[in-house]
Design goal:
single chain, mainly beta, 4-stranded antiparallel β-sheet, 11 strands, globular
């Protein structure tokens, strides 16, 4: 069972950048497909990005509104997944969650229900 802890959120002006980190506790972290989601007040939790585990290549997937601005990556030696967010907009304001699928599961799913483990979330606020 993997535990996930996000960090790196904060307040930034529009056009600025932030890098979120998600640290995993499991020694088999490299075999988890990982995702980032976000939830704005009064809205559903939405997919942002995902990255496969090492065994099937470093495939990634992004939600359309963040393509070209956000980059998901992972460092399996550090058991960490990152979300580099550039050119931030006020509509990016949300609580950002890191999530993991079950060990060894493939698929860059955008449905939150296919992710089994979740972090506690980190707040990102973009001012105009």
């Amino acid at each position: 069972q993997v535990q996930l802890v996000e960090s790196g959120g904060g307040l930034v002006q529009a056009g600025g950048s932030l890098r979120l980190s998600c640290a995993g506790s499991d020694r088999t972290f490299n075999r988890y497909t990982m995702g980032w989601f976000r939830q704005a007040p009064g809205k559903e939790r939405m997919f942002v990005a995902a990255i496969t585990w090492t065994g099937i290549g470093r495939n990634t997937r992004y939600e359309d509104s963040v393509k070209g601005r956000f980059t998901i990556s992972r460092d399996n030696t550090e058991n960490t997944v990152y979300l580099q967010m550039n050119s931030l907009k006020p509509e990016d304001t949300a609580v950002y969650y890191c999530a993991a699928r079950k060990l060894g599961e493939n698929g860059l799913g955008f449905d939150p229900s296919v992710y089994y483990y979740w972090g506690q979330g980190t707040q990102v606020t973009v001012s105009s």
